[in-house]
Each structure stands twice: as structure tokens, then as C-alpha cells.
Amino acid sequence: MKAALASFPMPWLSCIGALLFLSIFLGIAYFTFRKSVKANYERAAWMALEETEK
Amino acid sequence: MSQAAADAQTSATMVEVTYDDQIVRYFTLATVIWAGVAFLLGVFIALELAFWQFNFAEWFTFSRMRPLHTNAAIFAFAGNAIFAGIYYSTQRLCKARLFSDALSRLHFWGWQLIIVSAALTLPFGITQSKEYAELEWPIDIAIAVVWVIFAVNFFGTLYRRREKHLYVALWFYIATIVTVALLHIFNSIEVPVSLFQSYPVYAGVQDALVQWWYGHNAVAFFLTTPFLGLMYYFMPKAANGPIYSYRLSIIHFWSLVFMYIWAGPHHLLNTALPDWAQTLGITFSVMLWAPSWGGMINGLLTLRGAWDRLRTDPILKFFVAAITLYGMSTFEGPLLSVKEVNSLAHYTDWIIGHVHGGALGWNGFMAFGMIYWLVPRLWKNDMYSTKLMNYHFWLATIGIALYMLSMWAAGITQGLMWRAIGADGKLVYPDFVETVMRIVPLYYVRVVGGLFYLVGYTLMLLNLFKTIKGAKPDEKVKIHSFYAFGEGHGSPYEVVHRKLEGIPAVFTVLVIVGVLVGSLIELVPTITAHTYVEGNSQAKPYTALQLAGRDVYVREGCYVCHSQQIRPMVAEALRYGAPSTLDESLFDRPFQWGSKRTGPDLARVGGKYPDLWHYRHMMDPRQMVPQSIMPSYAWLQKYGTDFGVLPKKLSIMRALGVPYSDDEIEHAEAWARGDAKKIATELEQSGAPAGLENKKIVALIAYLQRLGKLP
Question: B494 — contact with chain A (CB < 8 Å)?
Fold first, then answer.
């Protein structure tokens, strides 16, 4: 059992994990970087500079 | 804006808000004061390593001062800077006053009380000996309470905000608050023995993994995410331009939060930690390079079109140097996480150089830039001297360069010397002290580097003092007018992430899910690992006297300079013996694998030297090893062992799973006294003074002689 602890005899699990991670990452990247949403995010980039002091 | 929207704005309700900047002033001043303490302690412990004579009293010994230095730098200096910046920016980004003035003040004074408690306990050896989590259980509880107060105040402000969308800085603050709470609570689950001592519920490899899950993510979520949040607020302010790419910030935020939590095992490479956990740690550490540099690129390119201002604006100098050093540290971190590189660098000063590049460069310079930006606005007065700010910048930069270069050279030199094997198959440098002597001159260079940084800080102190002293009193209460929530803003078309930015509760839950995935996958199998190990193990619990001696080892902070983990490498086996195994630390609460070898590994020191050697070595290390830089621990023959508490200690250990019998617990005191008498008698016969049987030194010797001997 100690030998089993030293390794991780379930390569399929890490493969599924990696695929899941890549899918989510690519999904977020696609929805964030598509051209149609560019203007929406560009406005947000100015938020720290919005003058709130009168 | 459409006519309908404009009409809606005109008819919208205006609300008046005053910000609480007094609390920001408090935290700013606390940052400046504690920075001085942290830097002074840093120079002092650097002197102790360069000249052992600076270890002149037990309370100021390196092993007790080093935790005080790290706690002062992380929680006092960086902590107060974070709170100042978060409270200033959150009010403005939410267009709302902080949720509660009373909670703000409780937060401030509670945090300062925690820092003072650390300063009053660590020098007296009241410590858990777990890096960056040394403080004992009553202070742990206080930290949790104050953190909850901070969280309520922060989330309450978000709830009362008048800006629908959360700006990127606020995402990083959210990640900081929830993850630090998670890390602190789970790493601090311990059973009190007395007001000043506790045993963690985790043992051995469990404790190691939980501790470095905490330790690495203290760097991630206390020294990285909040400072990234501050960067996203103060860098555009200083550069007077928007952040380079809001979309890049989305990608790098979620990637960073998800990946960072997995990286803890890279502190335990080539140890007895199961290989699969080490591999996960390496993989995610290397992957972390991308989101880290995403943040760096976003920060640096915010200055696009205004790079010329870098010549004249010292605040921008600090910010740009900070972000550059963040980029260097986050390149070096993944590099050091590669197993082969780690095998050379781990336990050496290379790691110390790496850490200080981040702490002095990224955290220090971000804090200085922010302070120089904030103080004129908080005290309504221009900075007293731009020239002094520039001097500060250059002195500190030279200091960092000297520090990092000397520690890189020291680390690589010593790492290579440790592993050097001659044609005869023997170690080229078998005496550990030989490798120490070679790098001591580099310790002198580090002292000089630290002094440069300290002198730069004193210039800042003078500059701030003059600025604040000459400030004109702000008699008018500033009122800011905003549209009530949602009435002045909003877009007819919102994309997914912008919608999410309008729902802080969902955003926070997603962050928690993000950090929990990696935490659970790594921690759960490891915490259950002992179920399998115990059945096969030959490990026996410590005797009552050995346990008392182990508590002395923990109290004195020996882990600061000595590891107890032999790696599966030829040079390590030749120098120290067979590689360490999981079951050797099965009953170790806390684990003492260590992270630095200023002295040799002690995992198999048991039986290597006679008792008298240990006695003399602890009284005066240079009696046994003339070139040693170790402090003397002569007070261990002055203070007595508390034998009376041993039945309670054994009983707590049994409750945590250590197989002590009823008889052993009941007679723990007599058992320990009997063993101590035997050792003391032998010591006396060998030439040591009489009457040592009740002293801590004998208990410590009993523990040291047990190391590496399973039964």
C-alpha cells in the first residue's frame, strides 16, 4: 500500500482534468476576446480613473 | 448615451457621500512604522548570520528573531499596506463610504494588537514552528476574528456600492479575503496544551502538505493577489491612463486564482511526499508563469504612451520596478519548481534571494509607490522632496540588487558544494561547515544590501514626516455626489463577465470553488494517507522525555536552520544516510522537515555523536566545530523541563492518534525522569556538570539521539 501511495496509478484522471481545464480556459478566453465585446470591456478599463471627487 | 438614459439620469436621485479617509491614514502610518521594524530586524538577523557574536541573548537568537522578521514583513508591513490601499480604493470604486466606521477601527486596533502579540511571544520561544504560521493558538483565534471583521466591512461596502460593476482591483481583494480565511483556518486547527502551546491535528506528511498549502498561498493570496489589486487601482492613477487590457485581466485573474492553490507541493520536492502530489505541484507551478506574466504585462503596458514620465516621476519608478521584479520573481518561481533545478536550489540561500526579490521589490516598492501617491492626497500637502524620493528609489534598488546577487551566488555555490562527488565516489566537501565558510563573505554583502534598503527607508521616513508636519488641516468635509445605485449607469447590452461583475455574491462563490478544487484534490488523499501507512509502519511514538525534548527543539526554532528530510539523491545519502520515509515523521506534530540548511540535516543525527558532544555543542558550538556560525544555546542547561505536564501532552497525542498506552500516560512523568537521570548520569561521568537531569538540555539530547531511529 505504501508503494501505491508513492505513485498515482490513475493517468486517465489527470487526462480528464487537463481536458476539463483546457475546455473551460478556452471557453472563457473565447467569450472574453471575441471582437463583438471589445467596446464593452474597453469602457471598463477606465473605471479606476473615473473622477469621483467634486 | 441615449436620450432616454440621459433623461433617466437627470431625474435620478442624487446621494451625498463622505469617504472615511481617517482609517486609511491610520493604516498608512502603521505601514510606515512596521516597515521600519521589519527592515531593522532583517538587517539584524543578516548580521547574526554574518557574525555569530550578534546572537548575544536567548531572546535575540537568530532562530527566534527570524520568525519575528518574517511576521513583521508579511503581516505588519505588507498587511497594513494592503488594508490602507484596499480601504482607500474600495470606497472610490464602490462610490460608497466604508460599511462601518466602528468595524474599521476594530480592524485597525485588532490587527496592531496581533502584531504586538507576535512581538511579545516569538522572542520568548512561544511558537508553533510552522513557517509564517508560528503564532500560537490564542493569536490564531484573534487573527480569524479580525479577518472576519475586515471581511464584513469589505463585503458590506460592496453591498452598499453605487457602482454596479466590480472593477478588477475588487476581484483580487475578494480572492484575498476568502482564500486567506480558508488557509488560515485549516492550517491552524490545533489542540491547546496550555495558553502558550498547542499541537496541530495534522502530523508528518499531512502537516507538511497542509502547511505548505498554507505557506505558499500566503505568498499567493497575501503578497500577490492584494498587491495586484492595488496595482490595478494605483498604477492607472499614477500613469493617468486606463489599464492596458481589461480582457487580459479577466483571463489572468481566473487562471491565477485557480492555479496558485495547487503549487504548494513545490516546497516539498524530493521529500517523502507522494510523487503524484509533487508532480501536480510542479505542473501547476510551471503553468503559473502565464497568468503571473499576464498581470505583469498588463501593469507595465498601462504606461504605454507615457514612458517618458518614468524619468521624472519617482512614483512611477517605484511601480515599474515593482512590477518588473514581480515578473522576475514569477519567472524564477516556476524555474525553481522544476525538480532538477529544485534539487540544487532547495535548502540554500538561492530561495532566500528569490523570496526577497519578491518581498523587497514587488511588495516593498508597490507599497512605497502607493504611500508616496496617497500621503499628499490624504494630508493635502505636496511631498516635501521629490529628490529624496528619487534617492530612496535608487538606494533601495541597489540594496535589492546586492541582496539578490549575493544570495544567488551563495545558494548556487553551496548547492554545488553539497552535491560534489569525487572520482573516488566520496563527497568532495564532507564537512558541512566547509560549505558554510565559503559563503559567509556573501553574507557580508547581504548586510550591505540590507543597509542600503534601510537607509532608503529612513529617507522616506524623513520625507513623510516633513510632508505630514507641513500639512494644512483639512477643515472641510468633502462631499461626493452620485446617482443612487444603478440609476446612473448600465448598458443595454452586457457581456457575460460584465454581468458577473455586477453580482458580487456569485463572483465570490466562484472564487471559492476555484480555490477549493485544487485544495481538495491535493489535501484529501494526503490526509487519509496515514490510514495506509500505520498498518505497515515500524514507527514507535516518542518516549515522554523525547517528546519533551522535541518541544524544546520546536520552541527554539531549530527548523529555521536545520532540515529533517534526506532527499533521494546520492550526495544526500553519502552525507546523511538513507532517504527519509513517510513513517519516520508519522507522529511529528508539528512536522519539522524545514526549508533551509544553514546547518546540516538532522534527520539521522541520532547516534552519530555521543551525548557529551551534543551537550558541549549546544553550550558553545565552536568547542566542537571551530568555524561554526551557530549560536550558543547555553540557557538550555539553566531552565528546567516541565515534567508535570507530560501526562497531559501524551494524553492529547493519544487523542490525536498516537498509540500511547494508559500506563505510559499515567506514568509519563516518572518515565521521563528515569530516562533523564540515565542521560544526566552518563553526561556527568563524561565530564559535564552534575544536576542536569531536570534541565531542558537533557530532554533535547534525548530527542536528538532518537532522530533517524524508528523503533
Answer: yes
